[in-house]
């Protein structure tokens, strides 16, 4: 069952475009981009989520990430 977001597709796309633009502008390699984005996620969880919920949220985030990754060979 698809999840419904409280945020519009437009809000999500606008933010995604801005973040991607910064990484592209700086010609950031994929590994560095992933490191920075991972650190951002960690920081958000550690500073914005109650400590009792952090591990559960991180687990859910990791599962959603794995589910969204394509298995095709193109890159």
TrEMBL record:
UniProt xrefs under Pfam families: DUF1414
Transmembrane segments: none
InterPro entries in UniProt: UPF0352, YejL_sf
Annotated family: Belongs to the UPF0352 family.
Protein name, as recorded: UPF0352 protein MUA00_11735
Protein species of origin: Dryocola boscaweniae
